[in-house]
Amino acid sequence: MPHRTQGKAVIMDIKTGVAEMKLFIYRAVLSACFISLTAFPAVHAVERVGTHDDSAMTLENLSRLAGEKLQNVEALIRERKIAERNAANEAQAREAYERGVQLSSSGDFDGAKKAWKEALDITQSPEMREYVAEQNRLAKLSEEQAAVAQRAAYREEVVSGPRTGRPGSPSGPGWTGEFSLSAANELKAAVEARINLINAEGEALFREDKIDDAEGKFRAALRLDAKNLKAGEYVGSLIPARRETLRRIAASEQKAKAVFDRGSQLYDSGDLIGARTAWVEAINTTEIPATKLGMKARIDQLDAEIAVVFTKIDGLNREGVALFETDSLAESAEKFRAVLALDGTNIKAMEYLEVSIPNRKAFLLSKKAGEEKAGSFFEQGNQLYASGDIPGALAAWQNALTTTENEALKAKATTQIAMAQERKRQELESFQARVAGLYAEGVALFDVGRFDDSATKFNEVLALNSSHWGARQYLNNKIPGMKAELTRKSKVERDAQEAMEQGNKLYAAGNFEEAQDAWKKALEITQQR
């Protein structure tokens, strides 16, 4: 029975020693964490400010880099001040925590609880709260174990007397130190594993662009190890850079969405080309691959629709041109208006509607007026021909021929002109024959000495042809000349007859010399003829 009691006492001593050892390890590890935490901002401030090769930098880049460094340094200064303030608070919390540990170790569990509550009121560190909770649990356990040990020691002392300083027991000087170092190493490994896990979780969140959650993870890692390079890199550079990138992407996405929505409105209004232009601008604005794929799929679908529309547009344009070439201008205009309803900027349709068709209408109206005028000329020629005015008819029909573009009217005018020209030729021949006949009659009458009758015929010739040279020569020269010659000859004959009769009278009277003179005179007069 005494041996059983002694064994229980030894077990209780070992448990008490283990509890004390755990408290020692927690204090050592926690102190190391606090020391690392206070050193973190200065170390990483140096790492994040860094240096650059100024010789390779332009003035613009140097200015930009200086601005970035100033922003980084300001952020680091703020972080350092926050860290210093937190460090001061944590130092107070650590002092209260350690005081609680000491009180717990001395068996003053109520004082320890008050000290740890003070630490909880001050600290913001989740780890510190975990340590305090663990110490509260251990203190409660130690309190219970101490009560059991006290009862066991009391019973043992009652039976065998007090026992102290057993070598190798948890209260011995060498065993506790060796066991604390091993536990500290195990706890350090556990902390490193915890940091690695937190970093891995932070990296996963970072890859998912859950930046705030990722930053929380990395800052938790830094609270465990203020010098952790990976967490420091993410908090100091990668996360701010990614946050700025996400802000820029968000702005781009907002702009891309606005442009894409504008394209959708254009699509709903029927402006497919405008919609495509807007959507291409949107796809060039967005930086999200999934959004690009979605927009590209919509553009591909629109391209198929545009191809169908363009095929229809080409057909309508061809129909419009064909109708235009047959002067079916109203139907042609309808086709081109249908084209513009599908494509409001179609150049061919606009050109026909705004230029070609109006010009053709004006031309056709002018042509119609010309044809009406040509028809009027043609009818006028018919009337003149019927009245016997062949030259007038020919002139009218010639005007109709030069005015019209109607082949049928041209043929009719040409036929009428030919008929009139034939009639004119015949009349000219008849006229010329009549003039020639009258002239011949006048010449014949002149030749027989019927000068007055001849002059009548020549006057008839001049009445028909006032420029007839022969008739005018007879009337102006030959007939007057012949009449004058006949008058002279008649006078010569009378003078010769008188001289002859006088010579006969003188001869009858026996006056031969005077008779001879009178006959010589008569002979001279006759010789004048």
From TrEMBL:
Q: Which residues form a coiled coil?
A: 59-93
**Highest taxon in the source lineage:** Bacteria
Q: Where is the composition biased (Low complexity)?
A: 160-177
Is Coiled coil found in the keyword set?
A: yes
| Signal peptide stretch | none
Task: Locate the transmembrane regions by residue number.
Answer: none
Among Gene3D superfamilies, the record links this protein to:
Tetratricopeptide repeat domain
Q: Where is this region: Disordered?
A: 158-177
Q: Which UniProt keywords apply?
A: Coiled coil
Protein name per Swiss-Prot or TrEMBL = Tetratricopeptide TPR_2 repeat protein
Q: Which organism is it from?
A: Chlorobium phaeovibrioides (strain DSM 265 / 1930) (Prosthecochloris vibrioformis (strain DSM 265))
